[in-house]
Amino acid sequence: MSQQGYVATPPYSQAQPGMGGYPAGFGSAPAQPLYRHYGGPPQSFPAPPTGKDTCLWSPIPPVKSSSIYIQQRHHNLGTLACNMLLLRLHSCSVLKVDHPPLAFPAGPGAVQSPQAPPTSHLTQQQFQTSPPTAMGHPPMGPHSSQMAHPQSPLAGPTMAGPQSMGGPPPMGGMGRPFPGPPPPGAGGFQQPGPGAAGPPGHPQQLQGTDSTVTWSSTVAITKLYGFVGPFSMSQIKPIPGIKTQVIEDDQAKRGGQVYTTNLRGQVPPLVTTDYTVQDQGNASPRFMRCTTYSFPCTADLAKQCQVPLATIIKPFATVPKNETPMYVVNHGETGPIRCNRCKAYMCPYMQFTDGGRRYQCGFCNCVNEVPAFYFQHLDHMGKRVDFYERPELSLGSYEFAATLDYCKNNKPASPPAYIFMIDVSYANIKSGLVRLVCDELKTLLDNLPREDGAESSMVKVGFVTYNKILHFYNVKSALAQPQMMVVSDTAEMFVPLLDGFLVNFQESRAVINNLLDQIPDMFADTNESETVFAPVIQAGVEALKAAECSGKLFIFHSSIPTAEAPGKLKNRDDKKLINTEKEKTLFQPQKAVYEQLSKDCVSQGCSVDLFLFPSQYVDIATMGDVATHTGGSVFKYSNFQVERDGQHFLSDLRKDVEKAIGFDAIMRVRTSTGFRATDFFGAIHMNNTTDVEMAAVDCDKAVTVEFKHDDTLSEETGALMQCALLYTTISGQRRLRIHNLSLNCSAQLSELYKSCETDALINFFAKSAYRAMLNQPLKTVKEILVNQAAHMLACYRKNCASPSAASQLILPDAMKVFPVYLNSLLKTGPLVGSAELSTDDRAHQRLSTTAMGVEDTQLLLYPRLIPLHNMDVASDVVPTPVRCSEERLTDAGMFLLENGCSLFLWLGQACPPEMIQSIFNVPSLAHVSIDLRSLPELDNPQSQKLRSIVDSLLDQRPSSMKLMIVKQKDRSEIMFRQHLVEDKGLHGGASYMDFLCYVHREIRQVLT
Ligand SMILES: [Zn+2]
């Protein structure tokens, strides 16, 4: 396996190597070790306070609305000072005055009226719309919502500049068939006006954007987790009228709008917001999202702030029908036009000069001749007159038809093949899985992916069954009956037939259906329980090699491969290793055979999708290794039962077979001078330091790319990046998919913090931490995560925020939800280190996250908790989610919780019988079966509405989610409660409030 796959370079671009004695896997320790409070005990977070700890949260008049006050009157030697594990903060009354940390309506009132329009919260809007004078006003009393620090006289004037940012996009020219409205300005790009940054040297300019979490008074103590502490109870002073929060704010402000990509360094709407993209020269945020849209000019600044500079690229992201389609540019035999020096592809960042005869490359500044066939005159603005006719000049994303030079061995590519490989050992036969798969394939194969407008799919199909030996099938259309060929020597795998193994489904339908009918019966009496695994993958690769095509293996497998063969595995699960130095070995794949197999797969363009049906440990860390280096996925259905889990599995299989995908891909990310891509995370393989190889890449897979400085970046030219993905389409054409993105650069750190994207940041942190845990103890990984976060926030405070008391926790506006996401990450299965979790589940989550895009990590780390008991059945709207805390649950309520992997329907103990009746058609809660896996189809508005919500959620997610019914106080509730990420973790890990205290203390330590 490539070096990149296992030995990570430090994710902290700026940390000095070797400091603090950390191994190379996860970056170096920061100069000042700050780990005193974290991770000492086996648990990741300080243990719950003992009775001695006393913590008083004193009331602070909520005058300064944009900062957090934490006052600790008493604490126990400062160690667990504010460990508030037991303190329940009552909804909005505690958490925020101004900018609540989360997006959901706080307070019971909000829950009951989900349709209530978001109110207040102008802070962000002030940059765009409100008059600067407003900023200078004194606070309006306790509920003042939009004020910066009143103590700063500079607050008003310094805010004046940013008004010009992000004005409405010019909409002239709509209705052109291609490619859309002319962007303003010469060359089609607008840079933010000079006023946008505000005058340099005035850190106060960001005052309006400080996040404002004010713990004003209010700590209510409740008995949680069976522990009652001697905490003082202060009075709760609810702060009314404050509902808006981050996600909801963004939805209110930018939802339903057109996001036009003509501005350099423009921060897109959040992934949770519903928006439409108009491509005007930069890639849609669906394809590329950055941790910040303003890079620091120098490596020193980057090192100082420790904010990772990264882009998450999802090259095949699904684009809604109403957005710019992917145009294909075909220059015939000439192929795409590229810079002679850096090989960047023609794009909007090339500047034409000399009457159109030359162009200067935006990436390396090389001046190139324009080929004669491509010559075009320039208009009076210096823009080519064919600007709007050429996607490669005016759009952020487009494709080039590739020439033979871009094909393996200069031979045209072939359409890919899908090979279905079914484990027919005893477990899979007995569970009914084999019959289920075979029945499904008969109809599913009609839905193989095809080019737009094509009558049928060109993807070929093949079939293998196996246990200890492999059976190949000849399903040539001319045959009356399928033929089986057995290979029992699994040590040297070969494919016994070429002709008739990979066929067109339409042509061979009769023979294939015949085979699929026969397979379950052929093995019905098997008592073979041993399986091989590596030889199965090897057989798939060999078959594709022989057919000279790329493709995908769909493997349906049940058990750890113990049969005598290459890649044989043994049970190495050892719970005793948890929370020791050796815990990492549980996640390290057993290399040797599998490492070589990954390489073989990648060089053949063979992706592996693994559907696992285990009843016990199967070493997913190893079995999933090939899948996660070949752009594949691992699906897991523990203790599979057809009746209970069949539909869930079939939904996954259907999505997986039908999804948009490219094969045999190689990706290169080019950058303008001064910085470069240095590290890559994803279901990828790397043979060198620049080329990202992917046997396949589908619409849900994302690659996270980290950047580092080589030199000083210029504020004037900004930072440009171009992602070029060479791949084979589903019909066998070789194409280049290009995504371009331009960012700002600034010598002011305040610009960087203002342009941060928390959802992208946490995607980077999750992937880098999950990689690091292969090489370092979990404790160290978690310490480094928290430490880097503290440094990021301390640097903001020191350099960008106005002076304030040390007791105030000040977060940059764009990062105000960062702590809650980070805390949730620390509590995820892979990082939590609990013997109660299955090692395979932890390994599985680790592997799945590696290829996730920003939407998926956001949802995973902050699930949606949707109240259903007051939903408006007449409306199409899904009720607004509430904060992920037990606090939000009500005895008489009904909630849906989803995180992209799991879907729960939670029923309160006092759920009204009418509600139960209308949804489940039973008289009371006691009659509801928790084994239900789908909701009964009842003809009443409540049932229809709820089912439509569930269907729309399932439709939006990359994989299917199994619906689980959970009753309050029932045993089944434990699984559900793991996902209430603001609460203390069931398997360890702090509540959100505790974590904020902890981070605050770390920040203070950094600052002193
Ligand atoms: Zn160049």
From TrEMBL:
GO biological process entries: COPII-coated vesicle cargo loading; intracellular protein transport
Every Zinc finger Sec23/Sec24-type domain range: 336-374
Biased composition (Gly residues): 186-198
Any coiled-coil regions, as ranges: none
Composition bias, Polar residues: 112-132
Family matches, as Pfam families: Gelsolin (PF00626), Sec23_BS (PF08033), Sec23_helical (PF04815), Sec23_trunk (PF04811), zf-Sec23_Sec24 (PF04810)
Location in or out of the cell: Cytoplasm, Cytosol; Cytoplasmic vesicle, COPII-coated vesicle membrane; Endoplasmic reticulum membrane
Gene Ontology cellular-component terms listed: COPII vesicle coat; cytosol; endoplasmic reticulum exit site; endoplasmic reticulum membrane
Start and end residues of each Sec23/Sec24 trunk domain: 414-657
Membrane topology value: Peripheral membrane protein
Keywords: Cytoplasmic vesicle, Protein transport, Transport
InterPro entries: ADF-H/Gelsolin-like_dom_sf, Beta-sandwich_Sec23_24, Gelsolin-like_dom, Gelsolin-like_dom_sf, Sec23/24_helical_dom, Sec23/24_helical_dom_sf, Sec23/24_trunk_dom, SEC23_SEC24_subfamily
Domain Sec23/Sec24 beta-sandwich: 662-746
Keyword presence, Protein transport: yes
Sec23/Sec24 helical domain: residues covered: 758-857
Region: Disordered, residue numbers: 106-212
Domain Gelsolin-like: 877-949
SUPFAM superfamilies documented for this protein: beta-sandwich domain of Sec23/24, C-terminal, gelsolin-like domain of Sec23/24, Helical domain of Sec23/24, vWA-like, Zn-finger domain of Sec23/24
Keyword S-adenosyl-L-methionine carried by entry: no
GO MF: SNARE binding; zinc ion binding
Domain of life: Eukaryota
Family membership noted in the UniProt record: Belongs to the SEC23/SEC24 family. SEC24 subfamily.
Protein name, UniProt field: SEC24 homolog D, COPII coat complex component
Naturally occurring in which organism (per UniProt): Oncorhynchus kisutch (Coho salmon)
